[in-house]
Amino acid sequence: MYDVAVIGAGVTGCAIARALSRYRAKLCVLEKGEDVCTGTSKANSAIIHGGFDAESGTLKAAMNVRGNAMMTQVAEELDVPFKRCGAMVLCFDESERPGLQALYDRGVRNGVEGLRILTGEEARAMEPNLSDAVCAALYCPSSGIVCPFELTLGFAENAAENGAEFRFESGVTAIRRAGDHYCIETEKGIVEARAVVNAAGVYADAVHDMALPHAFTITPRAGEYCLCDKTAGDLVSKTIFQMPSKLGKGILVTPTVHGNLLLGPTASDLEDREFTATTRAGLNFVLETAARSVKNIPARQIITSFSGLRAHGDRGDFILEESAEGFFDAAGIESPGLTSAPAIGEYMAALVAERLGLEKKADFNPIRRGVVRLNELTAAERAEKIRENPLYGSIVCRCETVSEGEIVDAIRRPLGATTLDGVKRRTRAGMGRCQAGFCSPRVMDILARELGVPVTAIRKNGRGSEIVCGKTEKGGAVQ
Questions:
Q1: Is pLDDT above 80 for 475?
Q2: Helices 420-427 and 440-451, interaxial angle, to 10°?
Q3: Which helix (H) or strand (E) holds 72?
């Protein structure tokens, strides 16, 4: 019997798990995917929002501002790349100025500090590649960028190190109340828990409806992105937004913490909760709209495109509540969900702790250390690392300078990688210009060796994504 079962191992579920691991409680996280960060959290804008966009008085606004304020400490504790680069919202016509002023006023009401409205000339002085059509901009210095994979992994690994148990490929199929606790049927058996936290992303309404009457609807909102090579990473130094619409914050242009340039996302409501294909029309729209903000968008430097799904709720706000005794919903967590994750974790853990009468641990360890990044070390530090472990001297991914030692660490660490995508999210092997064209076979060999399985069992991600099926009869080569 667990005290708490968290459903969903995205950034929200993992943040809640980490916050709950501060308490004396038996805790598990149930995830339908093969790893943490396999849904919305793996495909988003990677932005830490300032907090001026959310309507004042909403949970979105409160969690955004609180999460932003927490992020510096969280990133330091979890060893996660984070940079407060600042953001601008652009105005292209004098008729848009009232909207810009409204964003400024809302930000002030929400408690966002340092906001300024700039002239077009002042904005271009900060960002020389801005369009000549920009006549004004809202500047927010507290906005930032983060690695969403590493933030989610940081929450999860730290929760695991503090006692949380993670169960993967354990999608929930039914939930029923049984006296003083819940019975949760999963693909791998029944889990019993005194309390349930529903952080199931685009499936949060379906999970809620397994246990309780229908109360809200989640619509998957697709967003398509283009990612440019690091040679284009200095086109802008801040996150560049356009005026938001009812569908979201619009097409942005932003640097990433790893030195790339990111463009997107689109916003299209779907019925299919698994549809993450990109479209020519969508990507063309991204490029055309981004070019309105920033000159010389480097379309020839695009190394990949991708699409992610946001969990758009019909209430228009985050749903963070105890919906029935011992059943808690953390649903409708769309933008600014990544920013809000630390605050949501804190908030939901407090609700659960009050319901169950949980006490704080005296020995909670907030520190997690990530995979060593060989390409971030000095020459002397690299040499020392290679002396300690020669595997760090064997480069597997040339684009991102990822060594065999880093990949082995990613596999052996808490909640270690078991798939190509798992290695990629932990080490960036395969995220460079060639997009895993050269390093995949070597990574597969390392995975097979470390996991003690044949290479035919190695998958790209979830079930059915095996890369090879056997060996040829004559040469013995793997196919």
A1: no
A2: 100
A3: helix 59-78
| C-alpha distances out from residue 59 to 4, 121, 199, 234, Å | 23, 36, 16, 35
Q: How far apart are CA 334 and CA 312, in angstroms?
A: 6
What pLDDT was estimated at residue 50?
98
Give the containing element (helix H, strand E) for 11.
Answer: helix 11-20
Among 114-118, 194-198, 240-244, 330-334, the range scoring the smallest mean pLDDT is 240-244
Q: Which amino acid is at 403?
A: S
Specify the amino acid at residue 167.
R
CA distance 386 to 405: 9
Give the angle subtended at the CA of 391 by the CAs of 390 and 393, to the nearest 5°.
70
How far apart CA 255 and CA 146 sit, in angstroms, is 10
312 noted as active-site residue: no
Is residue 356 within 8 Å of residue 3, measured between CB atoms? yes
- CB-based contact 139:123 (threshold 8 Å): yes
Contact 330/320 with Cβ under 8 angstroms?
A: yes
Active-site residue, selected from the candidate residues 49, 208, 258, 312 = 49
What would the two tokens of residue 375 be? 């390409």
Beta strand 136-140 with 87-91: parallel, antiparallel or unpaired?
A: antiparallel
Helix (H, G, I), strand (E, B) or coil at 110: helix
Within 174-276, residue ranges assigned H as helices are 204-211
CA-CA-CA-CA torsion sign (186, 203, 29, 412): positive
What pLDDT, in 10s, does the model give residues 283-333? 999 999 999 999 999 999 999 999 999 999 999 999 999 999 999 999 999
- Rounded Cα distance between 400 and 431, Å, is 7
Rg of the Cα trace of the chain? 23
What DSSP character marks residue 171?
-
Token digits for 24? Answer: 């004396």
On whether the pTM is more than 0.90, the answer is: yes
